[in-house]
Amino acid sequence: MLGLGRSGVAAAKLLAAHGAEVYASDVADAPKLRAAADAVRRVGGVAEVGRHDLARLRACDVVVVSPGIPPSAPVLQAAELKGKPILSEVELAFRFLRAPVIAVTGTNGKTTTAAWIGHCLATAGLRAAVGGNIGYALSEIALAGAALDWIVVEVSSYQLAHIARFKPGVGVLLNLAPDHLDRYVRLEAYYADKARLFENAGAESRWVLNGEDDAVQEMARARPGSVRVFCVRRPLAAGEEGGWLRRDGVLLLRVEE
To answer: What span, in angstroms and rounded, lies between the C-alpha atoms of 176 and 166?
Structure first.
């Protein structure tokens, strides 16, 4: 486990709970990180701060990377990691979830939208948890093992960059705009990570998309699954399903059964 932030510790605990031999490390060194390393040791893992032990990494079967570690980080360029599966914490946690996932991504509004969806589900009497970049790390939700109807996860491009099997039952793409160009060399690379939301799409997938964002529409074009759109500046066009906000503030929905 590379990185000892909240998601890194949660992932280490999840792996240890399922019988894995865990090595967790963080190149930084601070009191909070030392406490995190202690938490990993208490569940039987090996943890250290201030460096990544490349010899230990060479012996690992799978590397889980925290979203705060950029692709350019020296540890990810090390020869010891060449050819090894590298997973995000969201990808790891997804493999242990037992409830369908609603994944929310986009450049702006992810946190608000994920929180609102969780609130709506709870108000409807459904058992829902909200995690990812908001609230709990997804591994914490997986580790809790609660009986849930839905899991709402806010996912960033950083987390989507290292998925393999991640497949939301419902995917929400809010908008696309230039962002994180301190981490991405090109805008196209940022958009490519966002597009991985659709990577494992199937006929049963459901998508909620910004009907007024051309980049969103282009990214989702020809992807398998059913689509609903949302609009605030125009009503839905003929044949579109979803919702729009009327000028008087009333939300109107059109969904064909």
So the answer is: 21
Q: Which residues, in sequence order, are CB contacts of 83 under 8 Å at separation 6+? A: none
Pairing status of strand 206-210 against strand 170-173: parallel
**What is each CA distance from 9 to 2, 129, 162, 182, 241, in whole angstroms?**
10, 19, 18, 26, 41
d(CA 92, CA 84): 15
What is the rounded CA–CA span in Å between residue 222 and residue 197? 14
Using the Cα atoms of residue 216, residue 221, residue 224 and residue 225 in order, give the sign of their dihedral.
positive
Rounded CA gap, 4 and 168, in Å? 26
Do β-strands 251-254 and 242-245 pair in parallel, antiparallel, or remain unpaired?
antiparallel
Using CA of residue 233, residue 193, residue 104, residue 254, what is the dihedral sign? positive
DSSP code of residue 237 = P
Assigned token pair, 180: 């994180």
Mean residue pLDDT of the chain comes to 94
pLDDT digits 0-9 by tens, 16-59:
999 999 999 999 999 999 999 999 999 999 999 999 999 999 99
Confidence (pTM):
0.93
Nearest by Cα to 231 from 241, 219, 221: 241
